[in-house]
Amino acid sequence: MRKLSVLFVLLTFVFMSFYIGDDNNQRSLTPYSFGDQLRFFPPMPTAKNNQLTVEGAELGRYLFYDPILSIDSSFSCASCHRQENAFSDSPKRFSTGVNGDTLSRNTPPLFNLAWYPQLFWDGRANSLEDQVFHPVRDTSEMNLSWENAAQRVKENDFYRQKFRDVFGNTEIDSVLIARAIAQFERTIISANSKYDKVLRREDYFTPKEYEGFVIANDQTKGDCLHCHTSDANALGTTGEMSNNGLQEAFQPEDFKDKGQGETSNNKDDIGKFKIPSFRNVALTAPYMHDGRFQTLEEVVDFYSEGVHESHNIDSKMEFAHRGGVHLTEEEKESLIAFLYTMTDSTLITDEKFSSPF
């Protein structure tokens, strides 16, 4: 009987602890649900130490749009990542930071980020949480120390309550701020383009769009499928790093921008950059890490006739030895027609991704 009583007390304590919650105040948080929109995506990677919740994502949305994290409180994440351009800074080739500095690489769009094993063009961040740390402290971007950023947030009554609601009584610091913003960024999903509607059998490709889809996935034609998945899954990218033949280079020192090699210190990574998604390319010009191409036509022309060989060009660039895949003008038009079906008009208008201010 005594053993039963002890067991009853222990079970009751565990139950009440779960129900009432501890200092992290988990009792009132709502797990974030993506519903059925990820049906054609690979399983979404999750952050073990940063559970995605409705309340956490909402806090992150405030911080994403709030200039409080810049040195003079005039510049936010959204200053360079604008919703109407799929969270890119199109049509700018290079964004300008809070102090007027011009950045050295084109600003990438933000959507479907949870699947990227590495972030930034050079892969310097291995998680969304890690990614958040870079632009805030970068002197060319937001130029604010994380110590000052955390202090500002701590002193703000609105944020103190928001953080308490999401993270309980844990002291506000750079780690919690990064976790909140990362939660919001994980919710920015692009999954409602015409391409997605075709997958869901709600719409149909035109003959030209379908021909473009076939060309993209034909290894003897566009040969895009190895890097830009649109048949095996709906991400539009493998998310890997690649040297796609933008520059003729046979020695590491030949590369103007070292890319991944700059952060990995591995000479085999020099000239490699993150593979972007096919999704929303009609909204995110200019293209490539250095914004060298202004139009999709220029991009397709490059892969057709302008590829350069180099000592570590991606082995998946099977036609580099002859300068590209050599599409006809009609095939190029069809491929571009297919790429336009990847535009997600819902992403750029959805209020849950817009400024809460």
Written description of the protein model:
The chain is mainly alpha-helical and 357 residues long. The chain folds into two domains: 173 residues, Cytochrome c-like domain (Cytochrome Bc1 Complex, Chain D, domain 2, Orthogonal Bundle), CATH 1.10.760; 147 residues, Cytochrome Bc1 Complex, Chain D, domain 2, CATH 1.10.760.10. A two-stranded antiparallel sheet has the order 1-2. The longest helix is centred in the first third of the chain and has 19 residues. The chain is globular and about 60 Å long. The N and C termini lie far apart (60 Å).
Strand content: under 5%
By CATH reckoning, the class of the largest domain would read: Mainly Alpha
Shape: globular
Average pLDDT, all residues:
91
Determine the number of helices (DSSP H or I, runs of at least 4 residues): 11
Number of strands: 2
CATH architecture of the largest domain: Orthogonal Bundle
What's the CATH H-level homologous superfamily of the largest domain? Cytochrome c-like domain
Question: Strand order, biggest sheet?
Answer: 1-2
Distance between the termini: 60 Å
Low-confidence spans: pLDDT under 50, at least 5 residues? 1-26
CATH topology descriptor of the largest domain: Cytochrome Bc1 Complex, Chain D, domain 2
- What Rg do the Cα atoms give? 23 Å
Which structural class do you get from the secondary structure elements?
Answer: mainly alpha
User: How many structurally independent domains?
Assistant: 2
Largest sheet: 2 strands, antiparallel
**Secondary-structure element order, as H and E?**
HHHHHHHHEHEHH
